[in-house]
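Forum > Structural Biology > Help requests

Title: Can anyone predict the 3D structure of NERD domain-containing protein?

Hi all, first post here. I have the sequence for NERD domain-containing protein but no way to get a structure on my laptop. I'd be grateful if someone could post the C-alpha cells.
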Amino acid sequence: MALIERGEVGSARGQPPGKPGGDGETSTYGDVLGNPQLQRWALRIGVATVIGVLFAIVFDLRVGVTVAIIAVIADTVRKARSVPSDQAHRRASAAERKTARQLRGLTKQGWHILHARAVPRDSEGVSDGKIDHLVIGPTGVYAIDSEQWDKRLPVRTLSHLKLFHGPFEKKDRLDEARWEANQASRLLSKAIGVEIPVQPSVAIYGPAIPWRIMTVRNVDVYAGGTARKYLRKKPKVLTAEEVERIAEVARTALPSKFPE
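Reply #1:
Sure, ran it for you. C-alpha cells for NERD domain-containing protein below:
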C-alpha cells in the first residue's frame, strides 16, 4: 500500500456544540448536524425505528423494539467491517511503514524492495489490486501485505484453511493476497520466459500471533515484527544475476500504484 498519510479533516472535529474549535471560531448546531458520523447514526436509527414500528404493528411492541435494536447493531457491525475507510487507510499505511523500515536494511545485501505495486486485473491492464511490498532476493520472490489489526482480538487458525481475527474470518483477505501473488507470478514469468513463483504472505501488527509462520490457504501468516527474519531464513534459490533480472522486469510489469 502507499506510504501516504491522510490529514485530519475539520479543525473543530470532536468539539461539543458552543465550544471553541481548533481555528478559534465557535461551533454551531449547524456544524454538528452536518457531521457525517452524526448523519449516519441518524439514518441508522431512523431506519431501525421504521422497521421496529412495522414489526410492532404486525406482532407486538416487545418484538418491534428487539428487531429495531438488532437492526442498529447489525448495521453498525457491517459499517465497521467495510473497507476501505479513512481510518482503515491510516491504520494500513502505519503497518506498511513498519514493514518498510524492517526491509530497508536488506537492500545492502542484494535484495530489491518495491513498495505499492499495481496489479492488473484485466486484459486491458486496468488495476484495482495492490501488493504492499514486492520483495525479490536470494530466497525468492514474495508479495507481502501489511495489516494492522485490533490487538484486543485473538488470532487463530483452523486446519490451515481458515484464519480468524476474533469472530471475523479473514478468508477474503487471504484470497486477495494469493490472487495478487499469482498475478505477479504470471506477469513476471511471461516477461522473463521461465516460471517465477511469488509467495503470498500477510504480516500482522497488533494482536499476539501464537506461531512463528503459519501457512493458511497457501498464504504465509506471521507477526509483522518478524518480516525480515521470515525472508532471510528460507534457503537460497536465486543467484545475484537472477535477482537483478527479476527486479528489473518487476519495475515495468508491476508499476507503482501511486506514481509521482
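Residues 36-58 form the longest helix (23 residues). The beta strands are 112-120, 127-137, 140-148, 155-158, 162-165, 168-169, 198-205, 214-216, 219-223.
Shout if anything looks off.
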